[in-house]
Specification:
Blueprint (H helix, E strand, L loop, with lengths): L13 H25 L5 H8 L3 H7 L3 H25 L3 H18 L1 H7 L9 H21 L10 H11 L9 H16 L15 H6 L7
Length: about 220
């Protein structure tokens, strides 16, 4: 009986393209999990091993660690920008400020890598200079709105938000059954102290900016 050939339904080039896409997804998934639990210092070779690919495959997709970290967190920074916009659109300036800080601190406590990237502790990630400038301008705007509405104490300084983030980032290294609840409680305590009311004067604000945190070489737990 003559052999009848079965026609090939795909393209030869589809095979490596599909395989490459799957490898990229596996690398990004492994990197997200590693950075969330262990911070940004996880070696590239470790990520390749956890993704089930060779180092050469990882470096074909992401020639440097900065490029890998950028790919992992670019979407998260876009979410932060969206959270800023939501806060600005909130008709209640105090609620907008609190909602934004709740979201950022929850992300920070749940993901050590995100906290480090957000605070600028890994230079070169996601055009960090422009991201930092935009974040600081947004924070100053949220603070000004809440002050103008008489809801935020008048001696509050935008650098006090940096203090909040620095305090909160330490919780990212705690077990997952601890860090979310601890972060919510810490943020709630501090937000209550920020609110306008009968309060004693504060000492002068510390000269803190996201840029100074980066250049101080501060690192997260571990």
């Amino acid at each position: 009986m003559p052999h009848t050939a079965v026609p090939f339904r795909g393209s030869v080039t589809d095979v490596p393209t599909s395989a490459a896409r799957k490898n990229r997804e596996r690398i990004l998934r492994a990197a997200r999990e590693a950075y969330a639990g262990e911070g940004l210092d996880v070696p590239m070779t470790t990520i390749a091993r956890r993704a089930g690919v060779g180092p050469a495959t990882l470096y074909r997709h992401f020639p440097s660690r900065v490029e890998l970290i950028t790919a992992v967190f670019a979407g998260r920074f876009a979410q932060c920008v969206a959270a800023f916009e939501e806060a600005f659109e909130d008709p209640d300036p105090w609620h907008g400020l609190c909602s934004f800080l709740d979201k950022v601190c929850a992300e920070q406590a749940a993901d050590r890598g995100f906290g480090a990237a957000f605070l600028g502790r890994f230079p070169g990630v996601i055009d960090i200079e422009s991201e930092r400038e935009g974040a600081e301008a947004g924070l100053a705007r949220l603070v000004r709105r809440a002050k103008d509405a008489g809801q935020l104490r008048q001696d509050f300084d935008p650098s006090d938000i940096i203090l909040l983030l620095l305090a909160n980032v330490g919780l990212a290294g705690q077990p997952p059954q601890v860090s979310p609840a601890a972060s919510r409680r810490l943020v709630a305590y501090l937000l209550q102290s920020f609110r306008a009311g009968r309060t004693d004067p504060l000492p002068p604000p510390a000269p803190l900016t996201l840029r100074q945190i980066k250049h101080a070489g501060m690192r997260g737990p571990g």
